[in-house]
Amino acid sequence: MKIVIQAFAISFIIHALYFCSMMVIGLIKTSQDKPDAVNAWNHAGALQNEVTFGPVVSPSVYALTFLGTGLIFSTVIWFYKKAV
Questions:
Q1: Which residues contact 52 (CB under 8 A, 6 or more apart)?
Q2: C-alpha closest to that of 13 among 66, 51, 72, 54
Q3: DSSP state for residue 41 in the 8-state scheme
Q4: How confident is the model at residue 57 (pLDDT cuts 50, 70, 90)?
Q5: Which long-range contacts (CB under 8 A, 24 or more apart) does 61-68 make?
């Protein structure tokens, strides 16, 4: 049971780092974006009428990656403890 808790803790840390890094990258991209709205009015075809914030992934995919990462790390921890 201890191996499972350790594996899920590692999986949680990896997923937390992933989500935090994606938020920081998005924040940096948003803060450095300088749209050229003045010149965009000269070209009507270049104007956007929709806003895209990025791809949307189903929460079940994140649950599967969390469980998969936990399974991988539980196997790694089990082999490590068996070798030591």
A1: none
A2: 66
A3: T
A4: confident
A5: 62/15, 65/15, 66/8, 66/11, 66/12, 66/15, 67/11
- How high is the mean pLDDT of the chain? 86
Angstrom distance (rounded) from CA 18 to CA 15: 5
Q: Compute the chain's Rg from CA coordinates.
A: 21
| pLDDT surpasses 60 at 27 | yes
Residue 46 has pLDDT above 80, yes or no: no
d(CA 73, CA 79): 10
| Reported pTM | 0.69
* Helix or strand run (H / E) with residue 40: helix 37-40
